[in-house]
Each structure stands twice: as structure tokens, then as C-alpha cells.
Specification:
Strand order of the largest sheet: 1-4-5-11-10-7-8
Shape: globular
Number of strands: 25
Helix content: 10-25%
Largest sheet: 7 strands, mixed
């Protein structure tokens, strides 16, 4: 089969959107070193729970109001704190409580407070809902000091028309992620006091707000979730793009999604942790620990919990992770080959549970590394221990999209109890912000960003070993052509299927929000490690083109 080249006609349909984006970015501050502060100047709309207060953002000599979609710009109340006093806009003095109307958005204004005159612009999102969070302290200093720090807070959701859809207390707000948490634009986790359904996704307490700071198209994780669902993933993630405000300050375009966790509405397997808690009098984390915090081969760590359920075969949620993350979590194990796993559930794992899951995973590893696919100690084939299609699906997503962290990090694995079938399940797929051609460290591994060359099946690790087995390889090739290629052709606009919105047709939905995001976070410089473009539209076009080239390359590798 041949992959047609992307046609220029589709770009023509986006001309109007491109002009709008260019206009919104016209007054964006340059990507230079500048001090970011939040002067006590606000714009307000609405009353009660529906009140939206938007703080002014100051970056060097530029100041900006970032307004959510639906914010009434024809009647905005200007609020000035005592430290600011009155302000002057375009020569007119305004007192706190006065109404200010900026006129046509995107224009420049002169704002003076104190002894300094600033260039003021007002940008507004469109088509996206907005989330307003508040922290108990009214600041983010404590949360940003450590990703484990938590604060109580509140949650409000507004639709794209500005109507309040939900107002709820939060048990906590906290940071999340590993390398993503130390980025300037940080991701967050929120936990409601009760189960809440958001955007039609099943009710749950915990939700994530992904920042996608290094993905300048901001949609790579969303593409992953959609592709996984199309390929039949058992526990697919849902998502929704939003404009995020915390304590009234605009933080950017975020991706709200479900947390990967064992839960009846998420990964619906037996909750071994709850079963263990029911048999022990003290909190599980109060028992003494065992094992080393260092990732040593053939070791495990957890808690000396006295009582175990009769059935300890599941469920388990584990994640393959880099060894330097091993000390950060209380439970885990390391195989004889040094493959490191963190155990996410049970959150507090007993010695018997650790022995069970580490032994089983070692047997699966030994089977995969053997020439005949069988574990030498038990004689079982790897397909008798793990779900083949889930392994193939995980491989294809990692290989086709060329995930930077493949074979190293963020690879989730579920072990249901034997009563639930018992086969080890690979997935759900997760953490693809560094994929599809947007990242490499430097010239030494620039091939990772290229649409050519294999990645997941190269080198060492589980996936390269699986790739050598004919039963795995043949299923991977058939699943790719029968299930993944039709999706990718629809996604890239080559062959619409009536259910997949092409990437470039999604531009108008995120364009105005992206203009605000990349004003707030001026990173579209086109510099190393990979030049994906200096505008948001260029980044989405780069991604679209990269996927087409990737399909063209894989045709030369996989014959069907």
C-alpha cells in the first residue's frame, strides 16, 4: 500500500485560522530572560460561584490579561489592590471597581501604574472550557516546593460559553510527574471529596491536569489515548483540553485526563489493597518496611504486613521505571536483569505479595528472553502468562510513535487476580509528550526524532526480545496494517473515516488557547533539540507530516 503525500489544499482551508493565530501572537513577549510577576490588578465578571477573577500577568515591559472563553469583554470590572491604587489606561484614570472595555481584542494599550508604563494586551480563548482552582493558601509556593505537598482547595468548571457547570470542594491539589514536575509549566493532580464525572468520563475522585510543556503541538498524549482506544485497549484514557487558572492566575492550555489507578471506573480489577486493609488493624503504612530503597537486582521492598488475603494473585498495578526513581516509592522490585518496577497498587505491599508478583514477572521475563518463548523453570510460554494483544498494542504505540522513554519508563502493567482471568496485561499506555519526532537529547541520538529507523525493537529490553518471537512479530504486523494504519490515515487527513477528526482540522479548536499559552510560556523558538516550528500551526503541521513519513518508512520494514 502507498501513503499519499499531504496535499496543499488542506492548508488552504486553515488560512483564516492561521491569520487569527498570527494576530493573537503579534503582541506576545519575546522569549528572553524577563521577570514574571503578578501585580494586584484584576478583571472580574459574574457574581457568587460564577464570578471569574483574572489576574494581570507581567512579563518585562509587557502585561497581559488572559481571558477564558465566554468571559464578557463588553463589561469588565477593573479591580486594583491597595498596593496599586489607581491605574491609567490609554490616558484615562481608572479606580478600583470601574468598568473598562478594551474594544477589539488583540490591540495594544498603554497601562500605567506606579511610575512605569507598560504595553497591555488582552487575549481571549475560544471553544475550550476553563477550570478555576483555588488553593487554601491562595498561592502555589508550597505545592511547587515538592510534588508530594498537598493543599485543600476548590474546583469550578465553566463551559466555552462562560456558564458555570460545576463547583466542588477539593480534598487536595498537588503536583505530579517526574521530569515534568520540574518544568516551568507544571502538571497537577486534583482529588475531589467524592466521585465526580467530568466531560462524560466515568465518575472518580482523582483527575490529572497535564501541562504538555515540551510538546509544542500539545496533542501527542491525546493522540496516544485515541490510538489506544481505536486499537482496543482495555483501559483507555479519556481527556479534554481546558484553560487552567489557579488562584485567578492563568497557567495555560492543559489536558484534563483520568488517573491511571485501580478503580471500578478506571482499571476495574480486584482491589488487593482494600482486601489487605480489611484484615489488618493498623494502617498499612504504619508497619515496618523491608527491602532496600536502592534498585538492586533480584530484590523487592514493601511493608511487613502481618495478615494477607487468601488470594494474593491480584490485582496489581505496576510500572516499568528508570532505576533512579526507585527510591521515591515505598513498593517495588527489580528483576535479575535489572529491570526496575514500581508497584502503584497495592500502595503498601506485603512480603508475600512482593514475593508473588516479583516471581511471576521474573518468570515472564525469562520466557520472553528465551529462544523458544518459555520460562525454563515452569515451561510456560509467555503467551500463557500475558495477554498477547496487549503486549503487541503497547509495542506498536511505542514503535510507531517513537516514544523517547520506550523500554525505560512509564510502561504500565496490570495483573488481575486469577479469578479474573489472571493474564498479565500491558497498558494502559501513558506519557507520550516526548514522542512523534519532538525530542532527542542532542546529535548523538537525533535518530529518535527521525521518522525513519526502528526504536522500540532496537537495542535491549523486553520489547526487542519480544520482537524476535514470530508469534509476536506476525501479530504486530497484522495489527498495524489492519487496525493502526486506517486510524493514522484518517488522523493525517489522507483517508477520512467519518469518526476521526484530522489533526489539521483540530487547529481551530485550540488555536486561540494556544496563542494565550505560548504568550504565557514563550517557548516557540524553533531551537534545539528539534526544530518543530516557531508557531503553533507549524508544530501541528510538523506532527502531521512526521506521522505520514513514519507510515512511509514502516512500509519498507513491515511487509503485509
Amino acid at each position: 500500500m502507498n501513503i499519499r503525500a499531504f496535499t496543499s489544499e488542506r492548508r488552504g482551508t486553515l488560512l483564516a485560522a492561521a491569520l487569527l493565530f498570527a494576530a493573537l501572537l503579534l503582541f506576545a513577549p519575546p522569549a528572553r530572560a524577563a521577570k514574571t510577576v503578578y501585580p494586584d490588578i484584576w478583571l472580574e465578571n459574574g457574581e457568587g460561584d460564577a464570578r471569574q477573577s483574572i489576574g494581570l500577568w507581567e512579563f518585562g515591559s509587557n502585561v497581559t490579561f488572559f481571558l477564558p472563553a465566554g468571559f464578557d469583554t463588553s463589561h469588565m470590572t477593573l479591580i486594583c489592590g491597595a498596593s496599586v491604587g489607581n491605574v491609567t489606561i490609554d490616558g484615562t484614570v481608572y479606580h478600583s471597581g470601574d468598568v473598562w472595555t478594551p474594544g477589539e481584542l488583540g490591540g495594544r494599550h498603554q497601562l500605567k501604574y506606579g511610575r512605569t508604563t507598560y504595553t497591555l494586551s488582552v487575549l481571549q480563548s475560544a471553544q475550550l472550557p476553563s477550570i478555576f482552582l483555588t488553593t487554601a493558601s491562595g498561592a502555589l509556593t508550597y505545592l511547587h516546593a515538592n510534588k508530594h505537598n498537598k493543599e485543600e482547595g476548590t474546583f469550578r468548571l465553566f463551559d466555552a460559553d462562560g456558564a458555570l457547570q460545576l463547583s466542588q470542594p477539593l480534598e487536595h491539589i498537588k503536583g505530579r510527574g517526574n521530569s515534568t514536575f520540574v518544568q516551568p509549566k507544571r502538571p497537577y493532580q486534583i482529588k475531589f471529596t467524592g466521585r465526580v464525572s467530568l466531560f462524560g468520563m466515568p465518575p472518580a475522585k482523582r483527575w490529572l491536569l497535564l501541562a504538555n510543556h515540551k510538546d509544542h503541538a500539545m496533542v501527542r498524549n491525546s493522540v496516544l489515548y485515541e490510538a489506544a482506544q481505536r486499537l482496543g485497549e482495555r483501559y483507555p484514557n479519556g481527556d479534554q483540553f481546558v484553560d487552567l487558572y489557579i488562584n485567578g492566575q492563568y497557567l495555560g492550555t492543559y489536558e484534563l485526563c483520568q488517573k491511571v489507578e485501580i478503580d471500578k471506573n478506571r482499571i476495574s480489577v480486584r482491589d488487593l489493597e482494600a482486601a489487605t486493609e480489611a484484615l489488618n488493624d493498623a494502617p498499612l503504612d504504619s508497619y515496618p518496611r523491608f527491602g532496600s530503597s536502592t534498585a538492586k537486582k533480584s530484590t523487592a521492598k514493601g511493608f511487613k504486613i502481618p495478615n494477607d488475603p487468601e488470594d494474593i494473585t491480584g490485582g496489581y498495578l505496576i510500572v516499568l521505571e528508570k532505576a533512579f526513581h526507585y527510591p521515591e516509592t515505598p513498593n517495588g522490585f527489580v528483576t535479575r536483569r535489572g529491570i526496575c518496577y514500581l508497584v502503584k497498587s497495592p500502595e503498601y505491599m506485603s512480603e508475600k505479595q512482593a514475593a508473588y508478583i516479583s516471581t511471576l514477572m521474573q518468570q515472564l521475563e525469562d520466557a520472553i528472553y528465551s529462544k523458544d518463548g518459555r520460562d525454563p523453570s515452569t515451561g510456560r510460554h509467555f503467551t500463557e502468562m500475558a495477554d498477547l494483544d496487549s503486549m503487541v498494542r503497547e509495542y506498536l504505540l511505542e514503535e510507531v510513535f517513537k516514544n523517547y522513554d520506550v523500554n525505560r519508563s512509564s510502561q504500565y502493567i496490570v495483573k488481575p487476580s486469577d479469578a479474573e482471568g489472571g493474564l498479565i496485561y500491558f497498558g494502559p499506555s501513558w506519557d507520550f509528550d516526548l514522542s512523534m519526532g519532538d525530542w532527542c537529547d542532542d546529535a548523538s541520538n537525533s535518530h529518535i526524532a527521525s521518522p525513519k529507523r526502528m526504536l522500540a525493537s532496537a537495542g535491549t529490553g523486553w520489547l526487542p526480545s519480544l520482537y524476535k518471537h514470530s508469534v509476536f512479530y506476525e501479530r504486530a504486523v497484522s495489527m498495524y496494517y489492519e487496525e493502526m494504519v486506517p486510524y493514522l490515515r484518517a488522523l493525517t487527513g489522507l483517508e477520512p473515516d467519518g469518526q476521526t477528526v484530522p489533526l489539521l482540522d483540530r487547529l481551530p479548536t485550540l488555536q486561540a488557547s494556544a496563542a494565550m499559552n505560548f504568550t504565557r510560556w514563550p517557548v516557540l523558538t524553533g531551537t534545539a533539540p528539534v526544530n518543530t516550528g516557531t508557531t503553533y500551526q507549524a508544530n501541528v503541521e510538523y506532527l502531521n507530516s512526521w506521522l505520514i513519513k513514519r507510515m512511509e518508512y514502516l512500509e519498507t520494514v513491515w511487509k503485509y
